[in-house]
Design brief:
Elements lengths: L1 E7 L5 H12 L12 E8 L9 E9 L2 E9 L2 H39 L1
Parallel strand pairs: 1-2
Antiparallel strand pairs: 2-3, 3-4
Helix pairs in contact: 1-2
Amino acid sequence: MKIKIKSTNIILAPNIKDYLEEKILSCEKFLNTKFDVPAQVEIEKSTHHKKGKVFRVEINLKLPKASLRIESTGEDVYFTITDLKDKLQRALKKYKEKKASEFKKTTRKSINKSIM
């Protein structure tokens, strides 16, 4: 997975960048693709909030026949990144299951056509 990180209103410290890359790359095992998937990640600190959710992390993935956009907001940057990773894992599992069911469906159709 090729990760491109954009930061807005925040200085991206090396430890935050490493943590972000580690969490995103841990989800790569759910892809099962033969090529690198481009991942665009944006991390932002909102300046107009006085309290509440101030960090926002967003990821955009371009997958074969699909695009995923996942966003997470929170008060702690590390918690927000971990929450994004969890949401990304769920979305990739769903994508993987959908691709598997489509493959089974087309295989079943081709077998039925060859029998008749």
